[in-house]
Design brief:
The complex is a heterodimer. By secondary structure, chain A is mainly α. Chain A is elongated, with a radius of gyration of 30 Å. By secondary structure, chain B is α/β, with parallel strands linked by helices. Helices cover 33% and strands 22% of the residues of chain B. In chain B, the strands form 2 sheets. In chain B, strands 5-6-7-3-8-9 form a 6-stranded mixed beta sheet, sandwiched between helices. In chain B, a hairpin with a 2-residue loop joins strand 1 and strand 2. The chains are: A mainly alpha, B alpha/beta.
Amino acid sequence: MLEALQVFLFDYTFRTVALGAAALGAVAGALGCFAVLRRQSLLGDAIAHAALPGIGLAFLLTGSRATPVLVLGAALAGWIGTLAVMGIVRGARLPEDTALGIVLSVFFGFGLVILTFVQRLPLASQAGLETFLWGQAATLMAADVQMIIIVGAGALALLALFWKEFKVLSFDGAFAASLGMPVRRVEFLLTSLLVVAIVLGLQTVGVVLMSALVVAPAAAARQWVDSLGLMVLLAAALGALAGVVGVGFSSAGSGIPTGPVIVLVASAIVGISLLAAPGRGLLAELVRQRRVGRRIRADAVLADLYALAMQHEDRRYGHPVATLRTMRHGEVGIERSLETLAEQGWARELKPGSWGLTPEGEKRARTRFLDQDAEHP
Amino acid sequence: MAGPEAAASVPGGGPAIEVNDLTVAYREQPVLWDIDLEVRPGALTAIVGPNGAGKTTLIQSILGLVRPAAGRIRILDRPIRDARGEVAYVPQRGTVDWDFPTSVLDVVLMGTYREVGWFRRPGRAERIRAVAALEKVGMEAYQDRQIRQLSGGQQQRVFLARALVQEARIYLMDEPFQGVDARTETAIVEVLRELRDRGDTVVAVHHALQTVPEYFDDVVILNVRRIASGPVSEVFTEENLRVAYGGRVPFLHAVSDAPVADLPES
């Protein structure tokens, strides 16, 4: 444990790699918010897969496996993939998901062919190109991390600069256009930034799983907060967390590709968020439903007690629980409902096993079920 | 009061909106066919017509949001790109995601984005104007609310406030009364009348035929072609509606009989 901490804090290589993964997660998380809010999560997946042939071709054409060269190739191919999606939707009149599916599989298949071809070349330098499939953070050099940070910071600066344009475009594109905003160009810029975020992560996370790092932090962040600014900040933080923890696990676990580990961590964050977030989470919803259910059941018993009270001259007459249960057709949990009513001060146990309404309970029943004014019965 | 002067301030006293020979087609199918239209400044104009008549497309063409196959549109005697600051748009509220993570005030502030300009954010002055616009539609108490918590009528009033904050002279609204509660309907009508009395021009796509005579001064009856347009008293006739709706006019009897507002919605 202590050793792991020491590695974490003092090992230069690990620190470099973790820093790169954190920067990457932050950029992908922040820009992923817009992809998620604009319902373009699948576009991220298509861009990532479409980048693969670009990596292979960039290597073939230049003979270099320097990261900037490969990233440039990836970015170009990713962009061409995006344009292909738009072109298919407009020109061939196919639905967008079909276009995304076509582009994703065709580009990815083409990329695999090139990669296989490259691996058979009698060159020493092609080694490691296949790490772009699943990602290998260990291959990150200090220069790569530097590039991720500089390019990523540039992308985030542009995001800040065009914040209100991106926001209104994502919320209401037609209104943005009516303001005279060049919507096409703003859209182009936003999608370009998404392409940048994705290709930055290909070496670390890999083309197959990169879209998860774009979508997962945003989806998780949306569960917790209700403003776009906070959502982007939180998604950036969660993305960075997923990156660092993923790299940590991957390097500790000797040779597990980084991409799958990062995705597992990001998925865990999403899972926790879906479950536990206040307001939108499943647990909060469950609690809400139970509370509503309990109130409805208690209301039913209150109505029964009121009906019984109306039949008896003596308002202080107690009614056995068994009677109430029969009126609810033998339903279980009558005692629980009576307790709830007692907590509200609307009913009380007059003698063991016998219940009656309090004056407040009678008033409550009248206003609730008979729609009468409680003040003037 | 200010109405006549403001109306007269349109250059040459011409129409607020002028549409000539407008044809719009989606995939070779004409949506609007050879439309000629003049919208009177300082008046409330309804656009009515059956589903698929091209009402939304007409509004969006005037705003320059769809590219027409042919035709010319002038706003205050200018092309739309030179008149952006004079025009405010209220889209159908169903066209946006009301689960978007933002607040009521934030949405209204979007109406100031054009004048705020590139690279800048709305500041205190814009905030004050946005709150004032919310007050006009009776929503100032909701300024910090999440938009997903709003009812349909409240959403519509927020959209109206976003248009008001633009301080435009021409308001183009797509079904501002669609699915709203009675209170919202009254509030919107009041705001529209206030705008008209100031000399502004309002054009609204409208569905409930029975309220046209009560709410609007002018009407455009549309079904791909322009069937009729002009003052409600002159052109909102059974005959014109029959042409537009193909013989089966919803609540046609309402047009002639007096207490029209009490009829159920279509």
